[in-house]
Amino acid sequence: MTVTELAGAALLDEVVRLTRDELRPSADAAEEAKEFPRELVRRLCELGLVRLGLPESRSGLVFCRAIETLASGWLAVAESVHLQVLAAVGPARFGGTHVRDDVLPTMLSGAVIGGNCFSEPNAGSDLSHLETTAVLDGDRYRLNGEKSWVGHANVGGVFNVYCRTAGGGLGGITCLLVDADSPGLSVHRPVRKMGVRALPTATITFTDVLVPRDRVIGRPNRGMLVASDVFVQGRIGLAACAVGLAQGALEYAVAYAKKRIQFGQPVIQFQGVSFLLADMATQIQAARQLLHYAVTRRDAGHDVSVEAAQAKLFSTDVAMRVTTDAVQVLGAYGYTQDSPAERWMREAKLLQIIEGTNQIQRAAIAARL
Ligand SMILES: Cc1cc2nc3c(=O)[nH]c(=O)nc-3n(C[C@H](O)[C@H](O)[C@H](O)COP(=O)(O)OP(=O)(O)OC[C@H]3O[C@@H](n4cnc5c(N)ncnc54)[C@H](O)[C@@H]3O)c2cc1C
């Protein structure tokens, strides 16, 4: 494996440097051009970030701080690293020898980009209606169906595909690790999104794709066990993205409010503006603490499905409010594409929808009350 792992503080220093020197300066142009920052993502994986994000590394706090920093500079890059972790969660914990020895190292190093395929045209929040099927044919599965909204679809080399292998409901679902260059697999053109355009999202269709049995992640018909680990990690990683995005917007708004003069003084001197900024800072700090509480408990070995849902729900709602208020602080300039604030506001909206919508997070929390 070629991963060079820098320990905690040194790694975070490098992430701060990369965010300042490379992410922030290139984000606007790459988002406009819809260009996936392949090289940047590979370098971040090589630093050891993907391995660090895996639950078994028990380094959740360092990972969250790294993702927060990246997201404060460019959400698409933070989300891409987060997606790479999500793609590796199942193979790392539930993969067989071939998957763990031959495929996982390429995902950890960033040599191969990965993705997760849950959603389908008729199954979004409700995965009990998955229609993609895999039928055992000798020592291979024959996979047929269509997966929607696959992050990394157009740049990925390997995908965790959740498909039906028995019965109905959530019981008969299996997770298969499928190579992107498998005959019969076809990736559609990227969907035209409101934001995070540098990270491609697309439909993938599977027509008689043959997948060897040793690519089953976990056990046949027990795919939802794998998925539940992915869901918790998804909520944690996405909450870190939200905290970072909001922090970047706050810092930008504060700097602007200190230099924009109206009525003979910087606008931050007006209580209407400074209280808005104070509320933004307070909400971000609350979101960060909720997230850090969840990962600290998880690193200590606790089940944090509720805490992770609370962190995802709260931090993404905070990111939406804070980015909206950042536009307000910037006034007319905030409403133009010459400022990054309108992009951040568009990006924040995504975070309330993916990794389980915020309605689904509320339902999950309520179910455990
Ligand atoms: C940019 C982007 C990237 C994505 N990446 C991936 C990916 O990599 N892999 C993947 O598998 N999927 C991905 N998704 C899909 C995402 O996970 C789904 O959009 C999400 O799960 C919601 O499903 P849906 O859009 O079909 O909404 P629906 O399930 O159709 O929901 C519609 C509305 O009804 C609400 N609703 C539904 N059920 C309930 C309920 N029980 N209680 C209360 N409200 C409810 C929802 O909150 C929502 O507001 C991505 C989506 C986007 C936009």
From TrEMBL:
Name the coenzymes or cofactors required: FAD
Among Pfam families, the record links this protein to: Acyl-CoA_dh_1, Acyl-CoA_dh_M, Acyl-CoA_dh_N
Q: Which Gene3D superfamilies match?
A: Acyl-CoA dehydrogenase/oxidase, N-terminal domain, Butyryl-CoA Dehydrogenase, subunit A, domain 2, Butyryl-CoA Dehydrogenase, subunit A, domain 3
Q: Which domain of life is it from?
A: Bacteria
Ranges for the Acyl-CoA dehydrogenase/oxidase N-terminal domain?
10-110
* Domain (Acyl-CoA dehydrogenase/oxidase C-terminal) ranges: 221-369
Any idea which UniProt keywords this protein has? Answer: FAD, Flavoprotein, Oxidoreductase
**Domain Acyl-CoA oxidase/dehydrogenase middle, residue spans:** 117-209
Report the PANTHER family cross-referenced here. ACYL-COA DEHYDROGENASE (PTHR43884), ISOVALERYL-COA DEHYDROGENASE, MITOCHONDRIAL-RELATED (PTHR43884:SF12)
What does the similarity note say? Belongs to the acyl-CoA dehydrogenase family.
How is this protein named in the record? Alkylation response protein AidB-like acyl-CoA dehydrogenase
- Annotated source species: Micromonospora luteifusca
